[in-house]
Amino acid sequence: MKLRAFVLVFILVGGFWFLTSHYSPLVDGHSIGHVSLFGGKSSSSGLHLSEAAAAPSYDSEEQNNIAVYKRVLPSVVNITSTALVYNFFFQAVPQQGQGSGFVLDKEGHILTNFHVIEGANRGIEVQLSNKRRYQAKVIGTDRPHDLALLKIDAPDLQPVTLADSSQLNVGQKVYAIGNPFGLSGTMTRGIISSIRSIRNEDGAPIEDAIQTDAAINPGNSGGPLLNSHGEVIGINTMIASNGADQSSGIGFAIPINTAKAVLNDLTRYGHAKRPSLGVVTYPIGPDLAEQMGIPADYGLLIQRVIPGGAAERAGLRGGSEQAYVGNQPILLGGDLIVAIDGQRMTDSRDVSAIIERHQPGDVVSVTIVRNRKQLTFKLQLGEAQDANV
User: Fold this and answer.
1) Tell me, what's the pLDDT at 92?
2) 88: three-class secondary structure by DSSP
3) Is 219 helix (H, G, I), strand (E, B) or coil?
4) How confident is the model at residue 2 (pLDDT cuts 50, 70, 90)?
5) Catalytic: which of 75, 100, 146, 335?
6) How many other C-beta atoms are found inside a 10 Å radius of the C-beta of residue 345?
7) What is the average pLDDT across 26-36?
8) How many CB atoms are closer than 10 A to CB 380?
9) CATH class of 165-269
10) Which of 29, 37, 81, 229 is deepest in the core (most CB within 10 A)?
11) Domains of the chain: which residue ranges?
């Protein structure tokens, strides 16, 4: 009897061991694996992974993103500018700033922002996408438009393709490639949010600036803003960050047509030859015109004419009677500019929009109101006295 009981127990235990070590029952559709009699796993793993049979295919949008990046990345550069500054103890300390730029031609011309290289009295270094570094020299600058033209001596450069920025539309897809926070080769994507006039950090107007929600951060300055074909439509220049010093979804780029208009001057003269009316003005609206007895409800009141400038040569007059708008002093009695080339003038941006289409020496028609009479003068535009102010 004892032997029979022992044999029965041996058979039951042996059968249990055989079943658990040779079969993998499914629980909720998944194998529980092979388990030994003593709680250990058997040599055959029960972990089954699902792997793709081939590399994934990309949709059309992804393919375009990849194509733009691969096409333009070799043309985008990182720029490091070094300046010597003095600390609290009057010790000379090198200080570095970083930005981006892009290659214009195989001769090594590179376009970037003026503020990226401003004050770089100890050299400017350009790093290409292949990690090679070159010393750059400044060919020309245009501070009001925040532009700088550099040049390096490097082989096998790949230039960008420049688009026409006059036909841009809100909603158009754009890409930014640059060096945000020192992270080289970074691409972000967004749309054109608006086309608007803005002022740079020096207060100079930038007409038709491209507003975008593509992430632009410190280090992106000077890098290209691209259309969906990988063509440059703008130069990334600033962000509206409300003090956070990082992207808030509102970035701005200088339209590439603005840069095209001054590239020849930067190459030939080292600065942009900007046309000038030779006047300082104050905008007048209906309420202010009524208070001051000005015989028009819009226009630009000439405060003063620049000695030797276009306005003085044509016989325009500045103000002579001091008055106040709030706490701001202004001069009354000068001519009121109401139109240039037949287009109504309501603020300084209107003037800039027209003048920027011309070159020094061009003739424009200026309509003014003087002593309640409307007069028209022909002005030959002069050149701004300081090309960087």
Assistant:
1) 59
2) coil
3) coil
4) low
5) 146
6) 23
7) 46
8) 13
9) mainly beta
10) 81
11) 76-84+96-151, 165-269, 275-383
Q: Which residue has the tokens 């600036």?
A: 209
149-158 confidence digits (pLDDT tens)? 999 999 999 9
Alpha helix (H) residue ranges in 85-138? 114-117
Domain 275-383 has CATH 2.30.42.10: yes
Dihedrals φ, ψ of 268, to 5°? -85, -40
Exactly one of 81, 221, 265, 335 is catalytic; which is it?
221
Q: Which of 115, 145, 165, 265 is catalytic?
A: 115
pTM > 0.90: no
Kindly report which listed range (19-33, 179-193, 306-320) carries the lowest average pLDDT score.
Answer: 19-33
221 is catalytic: yes
The two structure tokens encoding residue 50 = 């699902």
Q: Which of 115, 220, 111, 98 is nearest to 162 (CA)?
A: 111
Residues 6+ apart with CB under 8 A from 71: 230
Could you read off the pLDDT of 207-226 as tens digits, one per residue? 889 999 999 988 999 999 99
Please give the pLDDT value at position 118: 92
Beta bridge partner(s), residue 35: 41
When pLDDT is cut at 50, 70 and 90, the band that residue 44 belongs to is low
Structure tokens at 94: 């090198």
Look up 202 and say whether it is catalytic.
no
SS3 content of the chain, % helix, strand, coil (to 5): 20, 40, 40
Token digits of residue 109: 């011309």
Helix intervals (H) in 37-154: 60-72, 114-117
Domain 76-84+96-151: CATH class, spelled out: mainly beta
